[in-house]
Amino acid sequence: MNFDFSEDQQFLKTEARKFLDAECPPDRVRKSLETNAGAYDPDLWQQVIDMGWVAAGLPEAVGGLGLGRVDVCAIAEELGRACAPIPFNSTVFGFSEAVQCGGSTVQCQDWLPQVAAGKLIGCLALSEQPGALNLDAIETTYQNGKLSGTKAPVTDGAIAGAAIVLARHKGEIGLFIVSLEDVEAQPLESIDQSRGVARLVFDETPAEPLCTGRTGKDLLCRVLQGVAVFTAFEQLGGAERCLDMARDFALQRFAFGRPIAGFQAIKHKLADMYVKNTLARAHAYYGAWALAGDKAELPLAAAAARVSACDAYWFASKENIQTHGGMGFTWEADCHLYFRRARHLALVGGAAREWKELLATAIEADLAA
């Protein structure tokens, strides 16, 4: 069985890399980090919209290109490699995926065409406090068609026009779709200010539940599995870029009359990065296959992809800094851009610690079957 991208998907990746190499160099990422604290690069976002990437995985019936989820994974990897400062993750991996999985026909027709046309930035508003997502502690409520409560931190919450909100209704957990037009958004500081986070305050805000045959908890799990797989490819792209940066620097940096790439300690760093990245890629491909076909293996595949991708990107980002030595810690070096993004993405859709528990549960269920 071949889990690799098809020829068309490889072509899509190649063209995406060419575009991002030209339009999203590190200087552009740095500029967004320095001048748009908590915001994003609107010009780059519009270019991505014009390329059709936002609409790639959406059905043609709602204005999408109908390419499928694996094609979105291919795009995600290149966006991660470029460390693009745009709300693609929140809008496509989170909001759109949730509406497609749990939205009624009317809800899909109302919201997804706006995403496909690039007229709407979406986000997921799940957490209410630091630490693991605790469903028993959710205090945001939905009553009489309105939401009340506070969500924080919400990635891209300050720039989003709509959100999928986790709330409690009649004692049960559910997901609700809400316009953020009149919602108070308070920007928060984070380690990666090119992907801003915010606190959203809902005060009797009109909302509607996602209509689905699943329970609220089951729908939440399915949405997070999609987020995990898509984000794994974004993390993989960043991890591969860190390895390339470290390798290139090691070949160019001389010490004692020879490139530092020739020293055993540096060789081991690069080899360890390569091994973790390769393992993460294998799990990411498995996750993409399970997600695209809505396979029974999805809980296991998504958890494995999430855990391995978090580990690979974190390791690669810090080893990249170490390979660069003293200058790797400076603001002028590009290493910190990927270190910041690695730490941010490690918390999107649940931390690795939570996914390790889910992975163990999925393995136990598989063995018991």
Average the pLDDT over all residues and give the rounded result: 93
Please give the domain count: 3
Weakly predicted, low-confidence segments: none
By CATH, the superfamily of the largest domain comes out as: Butyryl-CoA Dehydrogenase, subunit A, domain 3
| Rg measurement, Å | 20 Å
What structural category do the secondary elements indicate? alpha+beta
Cα end-to-end separation: 23 Å
> From the 3D coordinates, which CATH architecture of the largest domain would you assign?
Up-down Bundle
CATH class of the largest domain: Mainly Alpha
Proportion in β-strands = 5-15%
- Helical proportion, percent range: 40-55%
In total, the number of strands is 10
What's the order of the H and E elements?
Answer: HHHHHHEEEEEEEEHEEHHHH
Shape: globular
Number of helices: 11
CATH-assigned fold name of the largest domain: Butyryl-CoA Dehydrogenase, subunit A, domain 3
Largest sheet: 4 strands, mixed
Strand order of the largest sheet: 1-4-5-8
Describe the structure.
With 369 residues, the chain is of the alpha+beta class. It has three domains: 7-116, Orthogonal Bundle (Butyryl-Coa Dehydrogenase, subunit A, domain 1); 122-209, Butyryl-CoA Dehydrogenase, subunit A, domain 2; 216-368, Butyryl-CoA Dehydrogenase, subunit A, domain 3. Helices cover 54% and strands 15% of the residues. The chain has eleven helices and ten strands. It has helices at 7-23, 26-35, 42-51, 69-82, 88-102, 105-116, 216-252, 264-292, 298-324, 335-345, 352-368; strands at 122-125, 141-143, 146-155, 162-169, 172-179, 184-188, 197-206, 208-209, 254-255, 258-259. A four-stranded mixed sheet has the order 1-4-5-8, with helices on one face. α1 (7-23) packs parallel to α4 (69-82) and α7 runs parallel beside α9. The protein is globular.
